[in-house]
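Example record

One chain of 349 residues, shown exactly as stored in the release files.
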Amino acid sequence: MTRQIAVVAFAQSDHRRTTDELSEVEMLMPVLHEVLARTGLRTSDIGFTCSGSSDYLAGRAFSFTMTLDGVGAWPPISESHVEMDGAFALYEAWSKLLTGDADTALVYAYGKSSPGSLRDVLTRQLDPYYLAPLWPDSVALAALQAQALIDAGDTDESALAAIGARSRAAATANPHAQLRGPVPQGDHLVRPLRTGDCPPIGDGAAAVILAAGDRARQLCARPAWIRGLDHRIEPHSLGARDLTDSPSARLAAERAGAFERPVDTAELHAPFSSQEVVLRKALRLGEEVVVNPSGGALAANPVMAAGLIRIGEAAARIHGGACDRALAHATSGPCLQQNLVAVLEGDPR
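Predicted structure tokens for this chain:
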């Protein structure tokens, strides 16, 4: 890369079980105002805007066009959208800035999971011929992955419970998290997963601003430089995969440069406790790495924004001096089907 791009600002909403009183635009507006205020930029100063969301959650086609009212689309702006988590929108914006077509980019994502049955909605991600007609929901598929890990000797139910407890304890310091502090492990939801192994269902939004080169240093005292960014995908058929491993996450990390030098912090998009086990192994994260100091997706999992939040949380720790080199991960699809890895670094102190 001949051009250096950095995350210079991050903002997110308070993640809540329901936001019936708010539309997507009303939920997103304060986040957009906050992220712009952190840099002093106005909408007219942004060179490119990219968003991530899902029409399936909103229940209507082209719902993302409504949120452009919150951004301000007049005078006309350079804008794009991905029907994916906002982390993948960030990938598009990063690519745009690398070309030199823009110096700044606004990336935002949002999701309201509360109005419908999320477990049913997510079945629409599955293979439409063999899997989707059977309606296996996201929790049942994650339970298959968890059981495969237990059978392989990689974990057990008590170890999974410890992951959930650690994540929600870390979220005590996160004012935006939906679940904070001690949370009962609860009954089995789908064996071997208990309610404490599963993410909360809720609504939320997030936004980041990217900037290139000297512009980044003007906007942020300690930019979080994106040293590498890559995403890969597993076979669509779950039967063609080893659910105890994630070759795509490993390859994305390798291509992003994660294995060149150790990281001190990792924000992993692991909606289920068992998925952290898979990712720790695939990404070669030792016990010395601080994993999900924000609480991760087990503390707040707004669908379509949770992956972008992982990048934002990692960047915020670099901005504040809490870490120097961080790995951020985002996923989409069943059982870690798609994986994106970003490596972020701060300037030497």
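Notes: The longest strand covers residues 203-212.
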